[in-house]
């Protein structure tokens, strides 16, 4: 086919269009400048302050009462593990919990059943290197919950869409829907946005929330800021700061401020009659050769600490304590975790013959 006949085809007409060529050249130039910046993926929006909230502070580690856990690895590749957990005097924990876990390079499955029949199931599926679908289902005697989340991870951004208890069978849409986007704009700075739409029932009005996020990463410190606008209901601001002092020591602080409308009904950050409430938390994490210590103190007068000590390669002991000076109350938790690995799996782990898959946790 000669050039004249090629130019007469729809593809040739589009390629020869001046506007299309200008847009294509602009897009290619934008990609080149974007690659030259050397941007990295900033993570998901909900974990914008993950170094403080998930690693230093005790929010995800604190417990009370007595707890014993027995883990039985069956296979390393794919990962297959059974677990039994007993607890006594622990708030929010069942006396007995059985769980099973399976993980491969594409699939992650976890099921947990408690002694009262409550069931919690999680599943993650990796469609490709960028897209992961996460499902979480919870069945209890009082209530049930289902959430489906899709995370798309690009080179320098992450987009996420999550649905909780979605339903359209009552003549309309109800449930909770969350869409978020976090983009690196420089090697150190990332900006993000999160939108929430929810409706509890068809006879109630829907509610919408909008949050803005900022994450800045220095050489040995990370700062984050989140601003949430709830319309007439008020606003909230959350900031965090994480710093690595040495290879074994890191510290973090978290500050939360909430603004709610007063009796006059005027809300927002610039309202004339606002009810203000705030809290501050500071914590530190120390990593030793065979143990990890975390401690924190907050503005409500609570002092907490948690020590994880590995006694043997398969035995770990955890001690947790909290003292509330204002309420004159104290809480203590002690836990023991035992990993009963077979001799064959121990030999494989020591020799490094079987490499664990990259499970989409």
Task: Describe the secondary-structure layout.
Elements: H1 3-8, H2 10-15, H3 18-37, H4 50-56, E1 65-76, E2 79-88, E3 96-103, E4 107-114, E5 119-126, E6 131-139, E7 144-153, E8 157-167, E9 174-184, E10 189-199, E11 207-217, E12 221-229, E13 235-244, E14 249-261, E15 274-287, E16 291-298, E17 302-312, E18 315-324, E19 329-339, H5 343-351
Parallel strand pairs: 1-19
Antiparallel strand pairs: 1-2, 2-3, 3-4, 4-5, 5-6, 6-7, 7-8, 8-9, 9-10, 10-11, 11-12, 12-13, 13-14, 14-15, 15-16, 16-17, 17-18, 18-19
What oligomeric state best describes the polypeptide chains here? Answer: single chain
How do the SSEs run, as a string of H and E? Answer: HHHHEEEEEEEEEEEEEEEEEEEH
Low-confidence stretches: 263-271
Number of helices: 5
Shape from CA axes?
globular
Q: Kindly name the structural category.
A: mainly beta
SS elements, strand count: 19
Main sheet specs: 19 strands, mixed, barrel
Mean pLDDT: 87
Describe this structure in words.
The structure is a single chain. With 361 residues, the chain is mainly beta. The chain is built from 5 helices and 19 strands. It has helices spanning 3-8, 10-15, 18-37, 50-56, 343-351; strands spanning 65-76, 79-88, 96-103, 107-114, 119-126, 131-139, 144-153, 157-167, 174-184, 189-199, 207-217, 221-229, 235-244, 249-261, 274-287, 291-298, 302-312, 315-324, 329-339. It has a 19-stranded mixed barrel. β12 and β13 form a beta hairpin. It is globular. The termini are far apart. Residues 263-271 have low confidence and may be disordered.
């Amino acid at each position: 086919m000669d050039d004249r006949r090629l130019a007469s085809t729809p593809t040739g007409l589009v390629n020869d269009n001046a506007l299309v060529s200008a847009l294509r050249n602009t897009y290619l130039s934008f990609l080149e400048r974007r690659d030259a910046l050397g941007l990295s993926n900033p993570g998901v929006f909900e974990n914008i302050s993950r170094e403080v909230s998930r690693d230093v502070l005790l929010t995800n580690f604190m417990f009370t009462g007595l707890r014993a856990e027995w883990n039985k690895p069956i296979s390393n590749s794919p990962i297959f593990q059974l677990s039994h957990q007993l607890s006594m005097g622990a708030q929010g924990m069942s006396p007995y919990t059985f769980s099973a876990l399976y993980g491969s390079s594409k699939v992650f499955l976890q099921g947990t059943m408690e002694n009262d029949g409550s069931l919690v199931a999680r599943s993650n599926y990796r469609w490709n290197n960028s897209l992961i679908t996460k499902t979480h289902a919870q069945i209890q005697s009082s209530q049930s919950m289902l959430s489906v989340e899709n995370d798309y991870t690009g080179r320098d951004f992450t987009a996420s869409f999550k649905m909780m208890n979605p339903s359209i069978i009552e003549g309309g849409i109800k449930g909770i829907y969350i869409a978020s986007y976090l983009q690196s704009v420089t090697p150190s700075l990332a900006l993000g946005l999160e939108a929430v739409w929810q409706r509890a029932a068809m006879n109630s009005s829907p509610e919408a929330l909008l949050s803005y996020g900022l994450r800045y990463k220095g050489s040995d410190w990370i700062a984050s800021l989140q601003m949430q606008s709830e319309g007439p209901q008020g606003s909230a601001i959350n900031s965090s700061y994480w710093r690595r002092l040495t290879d074994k020591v890191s510290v973090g602080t978290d500050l939360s401020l909430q603004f709610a409308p007063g009796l006059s009904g005027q809300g927002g950050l610039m309202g004339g009659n606002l009810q203000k409430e705030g809290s501050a938390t500071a914590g530190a994490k120390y990593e030793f050769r065979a143990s990890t210590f975390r401690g924190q103190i907050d503005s409500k007068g609570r002092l907490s600490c948690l020590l994880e000590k590995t006694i043997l390669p398969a035995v770990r002991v955890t001690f947790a304590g909290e003292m509330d000076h204002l309420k004159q109350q104290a809480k203590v938790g002690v836990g023991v975790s035992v990993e009963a690995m077979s001799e064959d799996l121990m030999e494989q782990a020591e020799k490094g013959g079987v490499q664990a898959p990259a499970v989409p946790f």
